[in-house]
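Worked example (supplementary).
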Amino acid sequence: MTAAAFEVTQPTTHEENPWARAWRRLRRRKGAMVALAVVVLFIAMAVLAPLIAPYDPIKTNFMLVRKPPSWLHWFGTDEVGRDVLSRVVWGARASLSAGLVSVGIALGVGVPLGLLAGYAGGWVDTILSRLVDAMLAIPFLILAIALSAFLGPSLSNAMIAIGVTATPVFVRLTRGQTLAAKVEDYVEAARAVGNPHWRVALVHVLPNIVPPLLVQASLAIAGAIIAEAALSFLGLGQQPPAPSWGSMLNVAQRFIAQAPWMAFWPGFAIFCAVLSFNLLGDGLRDALDPRHK
Amino acid sequence: MLSFLIQRLLQIIPTLILVSMLIFGLQQLLPGDPALIMAGEERDPQVLAEIRHQYRLDQPVPVQYVYWMKGVLSGNLGESMRLKASVGSLVREKLPVTLQLATMALLVALCIGIPAGIISAVKKETLLDYGANIFALWGLSTPNFWLGILLIFLFSVTLEWLPASGYVLLSEDWKASLATTIMPAFVLGNALAAVLMRHTRSAMLQAMGADYVRTARAKGLVESRVVLKHALRNAMTPVVTLLALEFGTLLSGAVLTEQVFTIPGFGKLIIDSVFNRDYAVVQGVVLVTASVYITLNLLADIAYVLINPRLRT
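After joint prediction of all chains, the assembly is encoded as:
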C-alpha cells in the first residue's frame, strides 16, 4: 500500500466537535452574526440599565412634558416629562426577561413532557398528544390573553401565560425528535447494555435532540417578546409606572398627533429585538442542520 | 375520501372536548371566590349564596363543567354580567365585523405575498429577491400594533386621508366602510403577506426545478406561461392549505388591530370583557375562536386532499 492510499484510508483522529462546527458555520452567516451582536447589545442594555440610562425612568417632570428629541433628551420626553430613552433602556429588562423566562418555562415543562411522550409511547403519549392538540387549537395570543386575564394583570403573570401558551410547541417538537432518536443504533445499544429507561432518555436521547430545540427556543424568544409587548400594550403585562416597550406604546397611542417620538422608539426597539432573534434563529437552523456543509 | 373525512371528524371530537375542559378550567385560576368577584361591592351572605346557587358554584367542579357543556351544546354560552345579554348574541353581533376585517386582511396578504413570492423565485438571487426577503423579515418582525400607530400618524394625522378609528357597516355605506377598514386590514395582513411570500417562494423554487417545467420549456412555451400556468398551479397546493390555517391566526391578530383602530369586533369584545371581569364572555369568545380554528384546520386538510389527486385514493 502506498503512502498516499494509506493517508486516504486512515480515519480522522481529530473529529471536529459538533458545537465548534456549528459555531464555525454560524460565523460565516453575516446576518446571523449581526443579529447576535444586536442581541448581546440588548442584553447588555438590560443588565446595565441603571448605569447607562441617562435619567430616572419613572421620575416625572411637568416642566418637560412631551418635549421633542434634543441633545438633553435624545428620544424626547413623554406625557409626564419622563425621558423616553431611559424608559426604552429600562424597558429592555421587561421585554428580554419576559422572552427568556417564558421560553424557560416552556422548555422546562415542554421538554420533559415531550421526552416522556416520545419515549414512553402508549397511553401516556396519547393523552399528552391530545392535550397538546387541544392547546394548539386555541390561537396563541387569545390563550395568552385569557390566561393573563384569569391570573390577573402583571409582568410575572404575563410571563407565566406566555410560557404556558408556548409549551405545546416544545412538547410536540421534543416528542417528534425523541420518536426519531429512540430507534437509532446508539439508543438501542445503550438499552442493550442495561441502562435504565430514565438514563437512556436523559443521557442518550436528550443531548442528541438539543439542536432543533435551540433553534425553536431562539425563534420562540422573538414570539415571546412580541407577546409580552402585546399583553403590556393591552394593559395585561407590565403595570405603570414601570417601563415596558408595550405599555409605552399603549400610552403613546393617545399622544400620536402631539408626540410621535413617544411611539416610534419603543416600537423600533421591539422591532430590532424581534428581528435579531428571528435572524439568529434562522442562522442557527442553517448552522445546526447537518445537510448544510 | 369518505373514510378520511369520517376519520378526521372523529379525531376532532376529543380535541374539542379537551379544549372545552381547558377553557372551563380557566375559571379555576381565578384567585379567591368567583361569587365575591361577581357580587362586586355587595357582601351580603344571602346574595352571595344566591349567586353561588344561580351559577352552580356550590356544586363540585365536574358537575359545574357538565352543566356548562350542556348549555354550550344547546347554544347557550352563558350571559354577560356587564352587558346583560347572552354571550351567543354578542358573538353573533361582533363576529361579522372581525370576519370582514380578516377577509380584507387576507386579500391584502394575497395581493402582496403571492406576487412577491413568484417574483422572488423567478428572479432568484437578484436585487428583487433580496428586496422581497427583506420585506418578509420586516413583516414577520414588526409588531402590528406599532405599525398601526405609525400608519395612523402618517395617513390620518399628517396626510388626513383616512379616519384614525371607528367602523361603518359594509351594508350602511360601503365607501366609508372601506375607508375605516383598509388601514387595519393592511396592518393585519402585513405579517401574513410575509408568511405567504416565503411559502410561495419556496414552493415556486421547488416547482421551477421539476421535470414538467423543464418539459414545458423544452416544448418552446414562453417563460410567462411556464411560470404562471405550469409552475404556479402546482406550487399553490401548499399555499392554499396554509391560507385556511392562517385565517384562524388573523382572528387572533384582530384583537390588537381592533384595539388600535377602535373597531367594535370580536377582539375588542374579549379585551373589554377582560377588563370588566366578564368571564363568561371571555370563555365564550375563546371557545368560539378555538372551534373556528379547529374547523379551519379540518377544511385545510380536506382542501389538501381535494387539490392533491395523489392523496385522493
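Two points are worth noting when inspecting this output. The mean pLDDT of chain B is 86. Chain B touches chain A through 49 residues (CB under 8 Å).
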